[in-house]
């Protein structure tokens, strides 16, 4: 079992920045990849960025490239999503995600990000 707890969401003006954090606990040794997804009402959940905790390999959605940075601190079992130059279309519930080596998926409870003036 893996538990994920997100924090850092909130209201920000267009062009502003936010940093999301996700703390993992439980069977963290089994985690193969972690990442961030987002979802707006009526739409499918979409990937934003992923990272491999061991190697630090990152993958970004086109919408996140150049604006968002995913990183990890293995000592704190934490993954971050630094979001810059935020746009209204970035408004969504952001979910932390982890997949284990046995292909089990885990999700956090979600944190709301609202970009509005």
Provide a descriptive summary of the structure in words.
The protein has 117 residues and is mainly β. Helices cover 0% and strands 56% of the residues. It contains no helices and 11 strands. The protein has strands spanning 2-7, 10-12, 18-26, 31-39, 46-51, 58-60, 68-73, 78-83, 92-100, 105-107, 111-115. The strands form 2 sheets. Strands 2, 4, 5, 6, 9, 10 and 11 form a 7-stranded mixed sheet that branches. It has a 4-stranded antiparallel sheet with strand order 1-3-8-7, with no helix packed on it. β9 and β10 (105-107) form a beta hairpin. It is globular. The protein starts with a strand and ends with a strand.
Characteristics:
single chain; 117 residues; mainly beta; 7-stranded mixed beta sheet; 11 strands; 0% helix
> Globular, elongated, flat, extended or rod-shaped: what is the shape?
globular
The radius of gyration is 13 Å
Largest sheet: 7 strands, mixed
Number of helices: 0
Q: From the helix content, strand content and strand pairing, which structural class follows?
A: mainly beta
Q: How far apart, in Å, are the first and last alpha carbons?
A: 40 Å
Please report which band the strand proportion falls in: under 5%, 5-15%, 15-25%, 25-35%, 35-45% or over 45%. Answer: over 45%
Mean pLDDT: 95
> What is the ordering of alpha helices and beta strands?
EEEEEEEEEEE
Unreliable residue stretches = none
Helix content: under 10%
Would you count the extended β strands for me? 11
Task: Give the SSE layout.
Elements: E1 2-7, E2 10-12, E3 18-26, E4 31-39, E5 46-51, E6 58-60, E7 68-73, E8 78-83, E9 92-100, E10 105-107, E11 111-115
């Amino acid at each position: 079992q893996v538990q994920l707890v997100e924090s850092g969401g909130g209201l920000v003006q267009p062009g502003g920045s936010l940093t999301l954090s996700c703390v993992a606990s439980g069977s963290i040794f089994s985690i193969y990849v972690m990442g961030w997804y987002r979802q707006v009402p009526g739409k499918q959940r979409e990937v934003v960025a992923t990272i491999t905790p061991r190697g630090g390999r990152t993958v970004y959605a086109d919408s996140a490239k150049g604006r968002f940075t995913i990183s990890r601190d293995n000592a704190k079992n934490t993954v971050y999503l630094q979001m810059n130059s935020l746009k209204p279309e970035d408004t969504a519930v952001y979910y932390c995600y982890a997949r284990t080596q046995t292909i089990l998926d885990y999700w956090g409870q979600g944190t709301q990000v609202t970009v509005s003036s």
